[in-house]
Design goal:
With 356 residues, this protein is of the alpha/beta class. It has helices spanning 10-24, 49-52, 69-77, 100-118, 129-137, 154-159, 164-170, 189-202, 221-232, 247-256, 271-278, 291-295, 307-319, 321-339, 341-353; strands at 4-5, 31-33, 35-36, 43-45, 59-64, 81-86, 123-126, 145-147, 175-180, 207-212, 239-243, 259-262, 283-286, 300-302. 46% of the residues lie in helices and 16% in strands. The strands form four sheets. Strands 11-10-9-12-13-14 form a six-stranded parallel sheet, with helices on both faces. Strands 5-6-7-8 form a four-stranded parallel sheet, sandwiched between helices. Helix 12 (291-295) links the parallel strand 13 (283-286) and strand 14.
């Protein structure tokens, strides 16, 4: 159960991954939400969830990532086995100057975390240790808490062909620096642009920043700020806001990039880091929230968000083949050992087995 299910969304991909695993292992499974944009025969309106869960032994898995009164109400009221899937909720402070709606959703989601902890659910599944500690601090029973990395669509990315038009457009003599994720304040895209300015003007003028993700179309207050900042820095031709893209286009962006960079201030896990590792794309990152936990020793992770330092790190990876290749191999190994869907499936089923 989740408020919504849509394409290009980490929470939705995780819910769909859980559905596939459970269905394959013989469970009768349904997906419940208020709204969706997916073609999936097993999606139903959330108001039908109580009719589906008939036995006290049935299990509800609620995906919590933002405020949702109806979802929390059902969790608290159902006399069935209940599992909370916590993806983390962005702190409201990041939206103070940009979106009253997003700020309220985050504030409510954070408040509801305490309600979900107090509901004494049978299982609490967090995407990272960072998120699990937040749940425990909110009052969740530590003995019922497990870390299960999120399911993702990397298997599909590995099978499909990259979009030829996108690949050809960016496979030139220009060095591509990539960011993938929602273009929202806590992702700190404004400082990412500053990092790129230092790299572009100080290290490599033949460079391009590719910002791939919903929200960069110039419509929101934050997106308008970013576009003005790019203009002010004289980087209009060097910064590309790709917006939301297809899986085929996404693969093309990963394949055409030299380095993945993030200076995000808040991540409950950060799936694009795992996508990058699977694509053997070296990573430079700021060590905030769950990022160090996700990356381990498979990338360059800095404890300070210093634009000059990160720009120089990008330059090192672009110029030094041995360092670049070492991180590529470390990243791929970490993905295969910890975050491939087969590994996530085993972890998920082991956690569910504690309910038996």
């Amino acid at each position: 159960m989740s408020p919504s299910l849509t394409t290009g969304d980490g929470v939705s991909n995780d819910a769909l991954g859980m559905f596939d695993v459970l269905a394959r292992h013989g469970y009768e499974v349904r997906l419940f939400c208020e709204s969706h944009s997916l073609r999936h025969s097993s999606i139903s309106n959330v108001e039908r969830v109580e009719k589906f869960l008939k036995s006290p032994e049935d299990i509800l898995i609620y995906h919590h990532s933002r405020g949702w009164a109806r979802g929390v109400e059902l969790v608290k009221g159902l006399r069935r086995r209940r599992a909370i899937r916590y993806h983390n909720v962005t702190p409201a402070k990041f939206f103070d100057d940009f979106s009253e709606y997003e700020r309220e959703q985050s504030e409510i989601g954070r408040q509801q975390l305490s309600e979900l902890a107090a509901a004494r659910c049978d299982l609490y599944l967090s995407a990272s240790t960072f998120s699990m500690q937040e749940l425990i601090s909110a009052g969740a029973d530590e003995s019922r808490s497990r870390v299960v990395p999120p399911f993702h669509h990397i298997d599909r990315l590995s099978r499909i062909s990259a979009d030829k038009k996108t690949l050809e457009k960016h496979s030139d003599e220009i060095t591509n620096i990539l960011f993938v994720g929602r273009v929202v304040p806590h992702k700190n895209v404004h400082q990412l642009i500053e990092v790129f300015a230092h790299y572009h003007y100080g290290c490599n003028s033949a460079s391009r920043l590719l910002i791939v993700g919903k929200g960069g179309e110039g419509l929101s207050k934050y997106s308008k700020l970013l576009h003005r900042f790019v203009d002010k820095l004289g980087l209009t031709k060097a910064v590309v806001f790709a917006g939301g893209v297809s899986d085929e286009e996404l693969k093309a962006y990963y394949l055409s990039a030299s380095v993945f960079v993030t200076v995000s201030e808040h991540e409950g896990f950060c799936v694009p880091l795992v996508e990058s590792m699977s694509m053997k794309l070296p990573i430079v990152a700021f060590a905030s929230s769950a990022i160090p936990e996700t990356l381990g020793d498979a990338s360059m992770v800095w404890p300070e968000r210093n634009p000059l330092l990160i720009a120089e790190s990008i330059d090192l990876l672009v110029r030094n083949r041995s360092v670049r290749n070492a991180l590529r191999q470390r990243g791929l190994r970490r993905y295969r050992e910890m975050f491939c869907n087969d590994r996530v499936e085993r972890c998920f089923l082991e956690a569910l087995a504690t309910l038996q």
